[in-house]
Amino acid sequence: MIIQSLLDTDIYKFSMMQAVLHQFPGAEVEYRFRCRTEGVDLRPLKSELEREIAHLCSLKLAPEELNFLSSLRYLKSDFIEFLRLFHLQARFIDIGEQDGQLSLVIRGPWLHTILFEVPLLAIISELYARHAHPDHDLDEGRRRLSEKIEQVQALDRPDEFIFADFGTRRRYTRAWHDEVVTTLAGEIPASLRGTSNVHLARILGLVPIGTMAHEFIQACQALGPRLAETQRFAFEVWAREYRGDLGIALSDTYSLKAFLRDFDLYFCKLFDGARQDSGDPFAWGEAMLEHYRANRIDPKTRNLVFSDSLTIPKAAAIWQRFRDRINVTFGIGTNLTHDTGVEPINIVIKMTECNGQPVVKLSDSPGKVVSTNQQYLAWVRQAFDTPEPE
């Protein structure tokens, strides 16, 4: 079976889950799966996927895994005790077919469904790899991994180039993910500062890295005050939950323009920095620098995290642009964990409803907009003054 531990997921799922337990324990949500890669039919994977889900739902956290989570200062004892009893439930998942494609819908209490996304995507990615490339030789992947290590080592100040593995959800296989992160940790430990994957962080002694995802800010469309204030509401709730920990704010749920409008002096002082996940990273970095300066914040006391479709050369170019003006780090995903010589599929699971109300993500890249209701999408664009791209 592909998933062997509930820790085989991203740490921000646990940080958001704790906030849900304490702040929104009654919230009901819906997530939907989508394969963005044209011409890929995943329906033949359905029976294997169902078996993998049944196994996933049999897993519980072991005492040593709970001990690791409890060692993270921002996770509270009542949440650890909740996790001691927790397991995922297949009754919240509906698998079928729609419009000639695999359909996967998750509906249920947010608290009991939030951990499905990452392992399900990892399962689908690995099942597809098994079927599409049954005899694939990983020697090409190892050659490319060595090339990445050499690219880091060739930088003029390699120990200052800091990145983390963000590649769980679209990895080639679990075994390959393990090999990649183990190799990077051994070869360039000064640069690889952590991983989003909690299981790998535990077994390799790395820092689990992550704070929040778009779904947390999206859900606040249904849980907060009037729509135009819901991004500020999400940041307030997060700060109330973590009180200075996990202080990287996600910047592109409603576009950078809307983020800068809401991320005022109060939030500039309250949060350690921001994360870029769509749009032009160079334009975003310059805009954040100007925003901090305009709010009388020394940029060298803040952090910018870049995580959108990165490669080592692209991240290095961003780092060289900003490294002497602000603290810069990177989360690199698919290019680390699925760069084996075959093309990965672009798959996502996104929140589409909360408490029976549609929720959307606008993004700074048109292809990343998430919406199942065009009328509501237009209303959100109006509320955040984010017109549709021409």
TrEMBL record:
<dbReference type="InterPro" id="IPR036068">
    <property type="entry name" value="Nicotinate_pribotase-like_C"/>
</dbReference>
<dbReference type="InterPro" id="IPR006406">
    <property type="entry name" value="Nic_PRibTrfase"/>
</dbReference>
<dbReference type="InterPro" id="IPR007229">
    <property type="entry name" value="Nic_PRibTrfase-Fam"/>
</dbReference>
<dbReference type="Pfam" id="PF17767">
    <property type="entry name" value="NAPRTase_N"/>
</dbReference>
<feature type="domain" description="Nicotinate/nicotinamide phosphoribosyltransferase">
    <location>
        <begin position="162"/>
        <end position="388"/>
    </location>
</feature>
<protein>
    <recommendedName>
        <fullName>Nicotinate phosphoribosyltransferase</fullName>
        <ecNumber>6.3.4.21</ecNumber>
    </recommendedName>
</protein>
<comment type="similarity">
    <text>Belongs to the NAPRTase family.</text>
</comment>
<dbReference type="InterPro" id="IPR041525">
    <property type="entry name" value="N/Namide_PRibTrfase"/>
</dbReference>
<keyword id="KW-0662">Pyridine nucleotide biosynthesis</keyword>
<dbReference type="GO" id="GO:0005829">
    <property type="term" value="C:cytosol"/>
</dbReference>
<keyword id="KW-0808">Transferase</keyword>
<comment type="function">
    <text>Catalyzes the synthesis of beta-nicotinate D-ribonucleotide from nicotinate and 5-phospho-D-ribose 1-phosphate at the expense of ATP.</text>
</comment>
<comment type="pathway">
    <text>Cofactor biosynthesis; NAD(+) biosynthesis; nicotinate D-ribonucleotide from nicotinate: step 1/1.</text>
</comment>
<keyword id="KW-0328">Glycosyltransferase</keyword>
<keyword id="KW-0436">Ligase</keyword>
<feature type="modified residue" description="Phosphohistidine; by autocatalysis">
    <location>
        <position position="214"/>
    </location>
</feature>
<dbReference type="Pfam" id="PF04095">
    <property type="entry name" value="NAPRTase"/>
</dbReference>
<feature type="domain" description="Nicotinate phosphoribosyltransferase N-terminal">
    <location>
        <begin position="7"/>
        <end position="125"/>
    </location>
</feature>
<dbReference type="GO" id="GO:0016757">
    <property type="term" value="F:glycosyltransferase activity"/>
</dbReference>
<keyword id="KW-0597">Phosphoprotein</keyword>
<dbReference type="GO" id="GO:0034355">
    <property type="term" value="P:NAD+ biosynthetic process via the salvage pathway"/>
</dbReference>
<dbReference type="InterPro" id="IPR040727">
    <property type="entry name" value="NAPRTase_N"/>
</dbReference>
<dbReference type="GO" id="GO:0004516">
    <property type="term" value="F:nicotinate phosphoribosyltransferase activity"/>
</dbReference>
